[in-house]
Amino acid sequence: MVGLQPVFQLKNKDFGPKVVGGQAVSLEKYPFAVQFFNYGSLCGGVILNSWSVLTSGHCFESNQDTDEMRVQIGSKYIYDFSAKKHKISYFVVHENYNRKIPFENDIGILFVKEQIKFSNVAKKGILVDHDKWMNPKEKRFIVTGWGMLEYNGALSDMSLMMTSLAFVPLKTCSRLHDVTLSADMFCLYGDGKRDTCKGDSGGGVLWKGRLVGLTSHGDGCAKEGKPSVYTNLYYQTGWIKKQVAKFIEWTCKNKNKGQSGAGNVVTLNFNT
């Protein structure tokens, strides 16, 4: 997650997770969670299918050269040498990202060169297919990440972290931040004690086992009265399907030219 500032830049000493006010969890519990390294910057990501990963649009601001990008799957720590590293074929950021409102349509998709092999630490997430979760009565949204434990603070050497947050109506969130928020955003709050933080951007938000969002931005981390803002995946369902369809078309053309590709194996999960 970012404020109005660049993506968190890793330095040699900055190894480790996390989420503010969270607890360490095993990757087997959240196997859709991956790490996205972009020219020294760290973001989270979500396995969409065996060829693609969802992440935040702002995670590409530091670099657009795919040779400098890697997706790391099955990683317990920031630099886990046992994790599988995937090179990137190409990526796409929402065409209306950051156009009228800061962080509007904060979403991108990475397409990997080598098919992701599913295991107990690598599984595709299931996207929500309704908006019933967008309710202030909902108090348990699960967020995960490998980012900072506190704003501008030290990083832990622990594993993947998680915490739970409560839904905040968009109008209330907009008033608390005194900024305009767009319909593709939603807000969560952890009573000023729990939150996502730098390095968590692009990580998934779970509600009853379904992915509803991606970590986007906020005003610091775990500030009292300051909910964090997330990308609404239900709102972006049409865009996601469109980009995957384009990828299938692209790979089929390459396959006909004798190159390897995804062919017709790419599927999406929008199961209830």
Automatic annotation (TrEMBL):
Protein name, as recorded: Uncharacterized protein
Species in which this protein is naturally found: Mythimna loreyi
